[in-house]
Amino acid sequence: xxWRRNLLLAAGIxxxxxxxxxxxxxRIQVVDVGQGDGILIRTPNARWVLIDAGPTxxxxxxxxxxxxxxxxxxxxxxxxxxxxxxxIERILRSFPVDRFVGNLADCLNRTMDDGIRDALAxxxxxxxxxxxxxxxxxxxxxxxxxxxxxxxxxxxDENDNSVLVRVEYGSFSMLFTGDAEAEExxxxxxxxxxxxxxxxxxxxxxxxxxxxxxxxxxAVTPRAVVISAGVDAHHKHPMASxxxxxxxxxxxxxxxxxxxxxxxxxxxxxxxxxxxxQRSTTKACTYDGTHY
Length: 292
Known about the structure:
Layout: H1 2-23, E1 25-30, E2 39-42, E3 48-51, H2 58-62, E4 74-76, H3 82-85, H4 88-94, E5 99-101, H5 111-122, E6 126-128, E7 133-137, E8 140-144, E9 165-169, E10 172-176, H6 182-191, E11 200-202, H7 214-220, E12 224-227, H8 240-250, E13 254-256, H9 257-260, E14 263-268, E15 273-277
Parallel strand pairs: 3-4, 4-5, 5-6, 10-11, 11-12, 12-13
Antiparallel strand pairs: 1-2, 1-14, 2-3, 7-8, 8-9, 9-10, 14-15
């Protein structure tokens, strides 16, 4: 009866494999880095992707001991403001990295850019500058949205030079927007609206009022929104008008790192997703002009 035992064993393995595949997810952590962005993505089979790294060394120094990262398949810098890329050079020099995506233009008076370019060369990391592309990591698609062709690679307004990334795992999708303001977002709505409709939106520019609009939300139609922002009265993020718009669009499915800590999104191939918060609170995300 060996053949029967082998058949039963094979059937059991197939069942376990099916269940495992069904239960797999892409795990997206919008890490509480204070006033900035730091997004850490774990694919179903524990491969890692990073989008931005926050304003301080905290996330860079926590990647190994706290999150268990040993290497990155992909590192993306949305744009060259310190609250997004201040420690990217440190990360490139500390971890094996397969590919880097970010603005590599050699602009005047940008010494931090020199450090990143040097790290890419020293570590022999494949790198690409702005431009549409689709990268596949362990079954998860990372779609680098097309840039506005008239944009200057050394702009006065770095926000509107943000690299936007659409993440897809099966039927689940999430959009990462850097600090994109109206000019860039309006161009995408006019030219690439099909890439914008997603399940979850990481809000542009830390929940600022210049990070959203009626037309933008009509194109994106998110079922949930995550805002990455710090408790910072100087920037006054997130702003009440934007928060109200996001809440109205998502029937209240709004999450913000300044109140809830690290936000954990798990997306599944059938399109459903769950969102967890590091801490629970009834306080509003918004800055009211005087205090949080």
